[in-house]
């Protein structure tokens, strides 16, 4: 997996991204409940794409949302939709950016397979958490559907998504996993800073 190829892959798909999005409010509600998104929190949306969750964070009265994405086209579309001063978008590699603050909720939604070094990413994100903060890795589809997707068009820009137990085992010791769900419609692993 090479980052230039990841950028090219998502830049090419950005214009159609929102039109192809299949949304389920109930799945997103489950994921954001697990992620601890509630009034007053700050959120780091890792690999935010076009910002598909920004409205959901704001609907829950998040105090601050930072979205970060490595694809300039995805980030450009996310920026073009910004209407609220609580939201900012950074275009860059989440593995290298210096974040301006610590966050109550760090959410990696539909993006984890695109990181070549999962344990390294989790450790880096854990270091971005405020005291009592939560790190959540989630997908709005089953593990089987994810495997099919990543064996197809996205094969060159992703690695297999681990089972929840395996992902939990990759979390750094400072995090306590208290949600691990993998069912026919979603995948959610969420951990709290000890
Ligand atoms: C499948 S898309 C998901 C986007 C969004 N979270 C959603 O659900 O619509 C994966 C995203 O990960 C981003 N990405 C991949 N590697 C990244 C990295 N190292 N840093 C930041 N973003 C990255 C891609 O540019 C892409 O927008």
From TrEMBL:
<dbReference type="Pfam" id="PF13649">
    <property type="entry name" value="Methyltransf_25"/>
</dbReference>
<dbReference type="GO" id="GO:0032259">
    <property type="term" value="P:methylation"/>
</dbReference>
<protein>
    <submittedName>
        <fullName>Methyltransferase</fullName>
    </submittedName>
</protein>
<dbReference type="InterPro" id="IPR041698">
    <property type="entry name" value="Methyltransf_25"/>
</dbReference>
<dbReference type="GO" id="GO:0008168">
    <property type="term" value="F:methyltransferase activity"/>
</dbReference>
<feature type="domain" description="Methyltransferase">
    <location>
        <begin position="43"/>
        <end position="133"/>
    </location>
</feature>
<keyword id="KW-0489">Methyltransferase</keyword>
<keyword id="KW-0808">Transferase</keyword>
<dbReference type="InterPro" id="IPR029063">
    <property type="entry name" value="SAM-dependent_MTases_sf"/>
</dbReference>
